């Protein structure tokens, strides 16, 4: 399926945006996680959504892919700007409202959009993410080895060495994957594409983690009114499935679909039939 690429100017940045399918079809906006370019939304995944009659939009966050980049350790923007960028992408494409699909940090952005800009969100699909703001449930902690990786970080590789950067990506994906077989060859191929497309991979792997996120949100996601689907891996080591259960319990009418064996990762190909079918059904509302 042909891919159309364009550049969209937002407040203080220029973002690389790619689309699949016809602009006449309902738009699906795919929002990636922290330090993730749009490449992680695989071409074949996007094409299958488009073949289901959707206008699929993916984009590089600031400091990922070929979007505007800042020096590593010096991001000239905030977490709020990343949320505003999602609206900027829709504005740039002339899309009044989209079916928003966000994973991890992208799921947090999706929740913010549904709370603050509900008129721009036709439906919301949340993958591998955690509720923003206050929640009634006690959320389970991350798996011990993942917690240790944050508490005792290893030295960064030489990001100017493409092979070392690819290996770092693969090692990170291995840590966060679930109990399904880990397809190292496939992950390495994706990581090589990410590294090759990145303006500054050191900035990609640094800047999103040190952003000013502003004051913590105090209102809960119970105020979200758009139809919401929650897709969450049963073996997510960063946000255990209790996080997905909490989202589904807080948002009125939300539905949870557990993904057996999936970790904190883009849906692996083995569950695409479930994920794509669920998204197409949800976005037909």
Describe what this molecule looks like in 3D.
The protein has 285 residues and is of the alpha/beta class. The protein has one domain: 3-Layer(aba) Sandwich (Rossmann fold). 34% of the residues lie in helices and 18% in strands. The protein is built from nine helices and eight strands. The protein has helices spanning 43-51, 79-93, 105-116, 144-151, 162-176, 184-197, 201-204, 241-250, 272-282, and strands at residues 3-10, 13-20, 27-31, 55-59, 98-103, 121-127, 228-233, 255-259. The chain has an eight-stranded mixed sheet, with helices on both faces. Helix 1 links the parallel strand 3 and strand 4 (55-59). Helix 2 crosses helix 3 (105-116) and helix 5 (162-176) crosses helix 6. The two termini are 25 Å apart.
């Amino acid at each position: 399926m042909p891919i159309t690429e364009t550049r969209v100017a937002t407040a203080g940045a220029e973002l690389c945006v790619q689309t699949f399918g016809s602009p006449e079809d309902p738009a699906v906006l795919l929002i990636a996680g922290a330090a993730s370019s749009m490449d992680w939304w695989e071409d074949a995944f996007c094409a299958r959504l488009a073949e289901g009659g959707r206008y699929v939009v993916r984009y590089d966050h600031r400091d990922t892919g070929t979007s505007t980049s800042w020096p590593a350790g010096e991001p000239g923007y905030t977490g709020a700007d990343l949320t505003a960028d999602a609206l900027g992408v829709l504005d740039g494409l002339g899309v009044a409202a989209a079916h928003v699909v966000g994973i991890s940090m992208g799921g947090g952005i999706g929740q913010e959009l549904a709370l603050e800009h509900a008129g721009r969100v036709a439906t919301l699909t949340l993958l591998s993410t955690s509720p923003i703001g206050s929640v009634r449930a006690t959320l389970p902690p991350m798996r011990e080895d993942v917690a240790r990786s944050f508490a005792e970080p290893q030295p960064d590789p030489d990001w100017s060495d493409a092979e070392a950067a690819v290996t770092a990506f693969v090692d990170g994906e291995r840590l966060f994957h679930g109990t399904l077989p880990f397809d190292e060859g496939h992950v390495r191929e994706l990581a090589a594409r990410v590294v090759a497309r990145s303006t500054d991979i050191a900035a990609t792997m640094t800047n999103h983690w040190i952003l000013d996120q502003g004051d913590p949100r105090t209102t809960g996601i119970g105020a979200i009114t758009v139809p919401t689907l929650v897709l969450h891996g049963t073996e997510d080591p960063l946000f255990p499935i209790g996080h997905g259960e909490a989202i589904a319990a807080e948002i009125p009418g939300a539905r949870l679909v557990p993904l057996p064996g999936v970790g904190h990762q883009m849906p692996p190909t083995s569950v695409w039939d479930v994920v794509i079918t669920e998204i197409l059904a949800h976005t037909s509302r």
